[in-house]
Each structure stands twice: as structure tokens, then as C-alpha cells.
Amino acid sequence: MATSTDPSAGANSAAQAPGRGPAKGPNTAFRELRGQRSPGEFAAAVRRAAREIGEQVACDARYVGRVEAGEIRCPNYAYERVFRHMFPGLTLADMGFSSREAVRGRGARAGCGATPAYATHPPYPQHGCGTIDHHHEVERDEVERDDEESDVLRRAFMTGGSATLAAVSLGLLPEHAAAAPHDCARQPVRLVGEAEVSAVEEAVRRIRLLDDRHGANGLYRRAAQPLRTAYALLDAGTARRSTADRLHAGAGELAISVGWLAHDSGHYEEARSHYAEALATARLAGDPALEAHAFCNMSFLARDAGRPREALRAAQAGGRAARRLGSPRLLALLSLREAGGWAGLGDRAACEQSLARAHALFARGPAERDPEWMTFFVEAELEMLEAQCWSALGDWPRASRHARRAASLQDPHFARNLALYRAELADDLARAGAPTESAAAGHQVLDLLPEVQSTRIQAMLADTARILAPHATCPEVGSFLDRRASV
Question: For 438-457, what is each residue's pLDDT tens digit?
């Protein structure tokens, strides 16, 4: 992607100290580059651009907001390459950033274009009381980019003071980091600060990114460890109310992410526990956005677990929390969850009313206050959720039409969702009496299974295979059944 822009606008905004970029403060030049797109839409454009050049960045609306607020004065090397790809001809200064040397100060060991000394090794401290140099933030995403699941765990905590004690107690640090626990105990325990909160927020982003690419099964058990650390940090306390609010929100979002991994892996009771934990955190913190998210996922889980009335009530409760947030897209998603509840109860009229409301809200477009976790909620997801409603009501031809549209609209880079949509299509076509087409869709799902691990998708394929079994004499169907059995 190469977004056209006027280089002079950014250059003028950044024309301050030569070679240094703007002083610390709002990055107006970068805000101009975003243009009319919402932070979430711009973050999605960044991720697409990264894929075009083979980079991996976990960009979301919060990251964009931090850049525009001036909190990120210089991007790490991966983001720099992506931004230069998006805006050819512009320098970091043109985009409103400071030079890497200015940000890193005397802690710098290399120039702006040099490879960091620890680019292939995680920056663990050499003892339990160590801290990570905060100048290294500009390079943190470069570390062990090929080992993404390890990245999730490493980014789930920062070592220093109370964070180190929590991490050692949970067994999250390597053995040498816990070698001197008594020395740590003699140190005064400091309150949790920006570094630890940012680590929790980063863990949420990385888990979501990996789930989009690979599914939940390989992540679930490992992702539970950062969650325990996040709640240990909550117990440690924070110095400022704003930090406490962010930590509560981060811990709650992490609980929802881990709950979703449990949900998609088929561990429904564990998922329910994690969602309830997130809801309790939201209530304690007075956070309506987190509350709405928790209820949204609780509704989804209840529907999958065969509890449609609970799904309906959770969606309605989420809607009440979301009305204060100014996000039509969030209300649209909760209306779709409500429609799923009505469909499970067999109330077609109420389901259609909820679907109509969801479409009207979705058509209002994205908003500045859309939660960052909703980047997945695009038109393809809207179609998928509607397909599931018609499927629950037994209208298989209508369900298959919406599932087919969902699969055709889905960004192929999000392999898990693409596999899910095609699995829904295969199941709906099988029930609609189109076995050959169903088998073809099933083959497309099997093509994705080597990179996607999802118990839910595998269960859907098993149901489809059961329905297609009477048509095994058909060559296309027989081929699908044999291949699925071997998988």
C-alpha cells in the first residue's frame, strides 16, 4: 500500500530542531497523515501495509492514539519500515517523530539505522531485581519476531520492583532471574507504573493478533500465565488513579482475551469464569466499555453453549452499558448478539427486528470512540453473525447466502476467521441439500487447518461430515470425508 499524501504538510509541522523532530507533545503531523480515517481504520491500514512488506506489527487504535498524543516519540524499526512504505518520500521527522538518538539519549549504543545489540535475544535482566532500560521501547518489537508465542509471554510483564516479584512468584521469569529472591525481598517494593501497564496492554494486542492468524488451541494454556501476572500487579497497587484505571482495563481485556481462547478451544466453563472475572473487574473500576465487552463475549459463549435466554440477557445488559460510549458499531455488534439469542429461542420476528437495528447502526460507520478490540467487526463479520441467526432458525438457504458473502468479504490474511466463515458455509450448504458445494467449502477449510488451530472449527467440520455421510458415494463428498478423516 502506498497512501498518497502531501509531504509538505508533515514537513512543515515537523520543522523544529534540525534532525530532532518536534519536542515532546502532540504529534500533529502524524494526525494529518491519518486524514479522515478513524484510529481503528488507520491501524488496519498499517497492518495491511506491514503484510505487504513482510513485517509483523500489532498496530491498533490505542497505538495510533499514543503516537498522536506524542507518547511514542520514535517508532521501533519495524513500524518505521511500515510507515516509510505507506508514505514514500517522508522522513521520520516529516511524520512528526523525534530522532532515535534523541529518544534514547545516552543509553544509545547504535545509530538510527543500526541493529539493536539484543535483536535476537529477549531483554531479560540478569537478576531478579533488574529493570529494562526504557530507552529500548523504540526497539522492543524487533525482539524474537520469529517466536511469536514466546513474545506473548515475554510482553506480559516488565521486570522491576513489584512486577518482578509477581513474575517470579508465578514462574514466568527464567531460572536465572529468580536466583536472588531474598535480595529482591530486601528491596522496597515500588508501586506499579507505566512500564508494567504498557506490558499488560501489549500482551492483549499480541494475543489478539496471534489468534487472528493461528486460532486459539496453541495459545490458550500459555496465555493464562500473563493474566495471572496482570492480576498480581493489580494487587500490588499503583501510584496514580489514571494508571490504576488503565491497569484495571488492561487486566480485564486480558481476561476477556484468555476467555475467548478458552471459548474457541472448547473449554466453555473456563471461558465463562474468565468472562465473569472481566465483568467483576469492570464493575469494580466503573468501566462501562470493559463491562460492555465482557457482556458481549458472555452472550456469544452462552449462545454456543446452548443457553439462548442467557445469551439474550447478556447482550441486552451489554447494550445498556454501551449506550454511554458513543459507538454505533459496538451497539450494532450487541444487537447481533441479541439477534442470536432470539434465534436460539425460535423467535423469528424479534430476531429480524434485532438484525434490522444492527444493520442500521453498522451503516452509521466507524466512530472515534469505537473500542480498539472491535477491529475484527467488519462487514464480513456482520454477514457471518447474520448467517448464524438464520441457521439457528432453520433457514439454511438464507444462512448459506450470508455465509458465502462473509467468506468472500473476509481479508485472507486473517486465516482463523476465513476458516470459520467457510466452515459455517459448508455446514449451511450441507443442511440446505447442496452436498457437492458443501464438500468444496469443506476442502477450503481443510486447506487452512495447518495454520489454524481451533476446536470450534474442527467441531463444525465434524458436524458437516456427519450430515454429508449419506452422500459419500458422490466423488466430491467422498473425497472431502476421506481427507477430513485423515486430518
Answer: 999 999 999 988 877 778 88
* Count of other CB atoms within 10 angstroms of residue 451: 12
- Residue 364 sits at the vertex; the CA angle it makes with 359 and 365, to the nearest 5 degrees, is 105
Cell of 315: 447482550
Residue 464 and residue 438 in contact, taking contact as beta carbons nearer than 8 Å: yes
d(CA 143, CA 123): 8
Q: Give the Cβ contact number of residue 247 at 10 Å.
A: 25
66 burial class (0-12, 13-18, 19+ CB within 10 angstroms)? middle
Q: How far is CA 223 from CA 20, 190, 217, 277, in A?
A: 39, 26, 11, 15
pLDDT band for position 127 (50/70/90)? very low
Cell of residue 435, nine digits: 452436498
- Cβ(309)–Cβ(350) under 8 Å? no
Beta carbons of 344 and 308 less than 8 angstroms apart: yes
Can you tell me the distance from the alpha carbon of 26 to that of 449, in angstroms, rounded to the nearest whole number?
44
Q: Please state, in angstroms and rounded to a whole number, the distance separating the CA atoms of residues 448 and 455.
A: 14
* Gap between the Cα atoms of 423 and 256, Å rounded: 24
**In the chain, how many H helices and how many E strands?**
23, 0
CB atoms closer than 10 angstroms to residue 365: 11
Q: How many CA atoms lie within 13 A of 114 on its CB side?
A: 9
Phi and psi based region of residue 174 (left: phi greater than 0; alpha: psi -120 to 50; beta: remaining): beta
The candidate with the shortest Cα–Cα distance to 319, out of 296, 303, 349, is: 296
According to the per-residue pLDDT averaged within each range, which of 97-111, 188-202, 402-416 is highest?
402-416
Find, among 406, 376, 373, 414, the residue nearest to 389 by Cα. 406
Residue 470, C-alpha cell as written in the block: 449419506
What secondary structure, in 3-state letters, does 211-240 show? HHHHCCCCCHHHHHHHHHHHHHHHHHCECC
Burial of 141 (0-12, 13-18, 19+ CB in 10 A): buried
